Predict the structure.
Amino acid sequence: NIQRAANVHIAGDVRFSRDPLVCSKAPGLLSAAGLTDRRGNLRNEIEGSLHHESGFGGTEYLLSGLVSEGSKRGLSYNRMAELVCWNPAHRYGLNNKGDIAVGYDADLVLLDPDEVFTVKAEESESGQGYTPFEGMQLQGKVKTTILRGHTVYSNNEVIGNAKGQYIARPTPRP
């Protein structure tokens, strides 16, 4: 079974919209916001299969897209943080993430909400080589990312080696 071998989960009819907040057209129903991106391809995982870049390039534009479109639609920064931090963390049992408080991991993003930029696939960290957001103007640029208290991204550059790690869930509550 190719789906199982590639560790790919396909759930229902997946449709794409260039509108980062297409779900917000049903107020109150949006509980989390996210994109998926995988750097590998299925050929590397299943010998002899057709070449297919899974996911799509653009994960790094999630927060900027949310700030751009959410601001136009009346979402507060607190609500945006809830959508991309608190709700997903608690949905997946990461009880020590999603908030800035004593006992929580120091995972932070510093964003300039006024900086406007144009999305260009060649500037993306994705292995896809394309993004459906190509050419879009977004407002709100990530300047620094801090993971567990360590700066991992600053001034448009990834800093140091990858620091990702497996986290068994659920995590203890702080």
Remarks:
- The mean pLDDT is 74.
- Helices lie at 2-5, 42-45, 62-72, 77-91.
- DSSP finds four helices and six strands in the chain.
